[in-house]
Specification:
alpha/beta, TIM Barrel, about 290 residues
Length: about 290
């Protein structure tokens, strides 16, 4: 239990075909709330931080929050740096103690992406950490990283060469998914996940999870998407919950910040718990 390597969490999920929520947090309240949801639902959990969050709060403060809130926790959790194209930030987070990183070099030619990813994997191994890799950008901008241009898929052989060369622990393919809120139900390439898993048996990271249907989640998880990223849904829950409470407070002319924090926290806990149920990770902590 407690803080464990990313692969410890994903190995069981991949084998038994359930998904582990990988939730982007951005302050102390959201971090504490998703951890509380994991304990309440007896679920493993991947806590993610964006480059923007690392820079705005600071890696020292973030990691101190993490170690304080996970001390003695009774479910397996891990700390992951999401979509990071900046090598210096990866080094900073690995040095502080992050358990894994996503080196996002999808903007580079595949050969250069592979060369640098090999270096990042070697660096991570020196820290006992793990690496998620990708060769295609996921459509949409998340915390200042990415592009709204539609992501082009590489051939399967190119993806397999990337996996064989870099030895990343998790792979994030473009399958028609996108960051941010979907304006309509996305059309996803389910078969591509099956083809990758059949060829290399590697856990797949599903990005752009906010807004997918329960049926899409379950189908993709059943094919090997063991890591399911959620960011936009948490941000929307946090801000809409805050807005609703503040509008009510304004009407009542009653201003009590602790009550605001409790209300928003509960909505975040409820959201995270519902994801754990849908993804099948609830009750899996052991």
């Amino acid at each position: 239990m407690s803080v464990v390597p990313l692969t410890d969490i994903l190995s069981g999920a991949f084998k038994e075909r359930y998904g582990v929520p990988a939730i982007n947090v951005f302050n102390d309240l959201t971090l504490e709330a998703v951890l509380a949801a994991a304990v309440e639902n007896s679920s493993p959990l991947i806590v993610q931080t964006s480059v923007k969050t690392v820079k705005s709060i600071g890696s020292d403060v973030l990691y101190t929050m993490w170690t304080s809130m996970t001390a003695g926790i009774e479910v397996p959790v891990t700390l992951h740096l999401d979509h990071c194209p900046e090598r210096e930030v990866i080094t900073e987070c690995l040095d502080r103690g992050w358990n894994s990183v996503l080196f996002d070099a999808s903007h580079l030619p595949v050969e250069e992406n592979m060369r640098q990813t090999v270096e990042v994997v070697a660096e991570a191994r020196r820290h006992g950490a793990h690496v998620e890799g990708e060769i295609e950008s996921i459509t949409g901008v998340e915390d200042g990283v990415g592009s709204d241009a539609a992501a082009a898929q590489q051939d399967l052989d190119v993806a397999l060469e990337f996996l064989d060369t870099t030895h990343v622990d998790v792979f994030a393919p473009a399958i028609g998914n996108a960051h941010g809120s979907y304006r309509k139900t996305p059309v996803l390439d389910f078969q591509r996940v099956s083809d990758l898993v059949a060829a290399r048996s590697i856990p797949i990271a599903l990005h752009g999870g906010s807004g997918m249907s329960d049926e899409q989640f379950r189908d993709l998880i059943g094919r090997g998407c063991a890591k399911v990223n959620i960011s936009t849904a948490l941000k929307e829950t946090f801000m809409k919950s805050s807005l609703a409470f503040l509008e009510s407070a304004a009407e009542k002319r009653k201003w009590d910040p602790p009550s605001l924090f409790r209300s928003v926290r509960q909505d975040v806990v409820d959201l995270a718990g519902s994801l754990m149920t849908v993804f099948g990770s609830a009750g899996r902590a052991r």
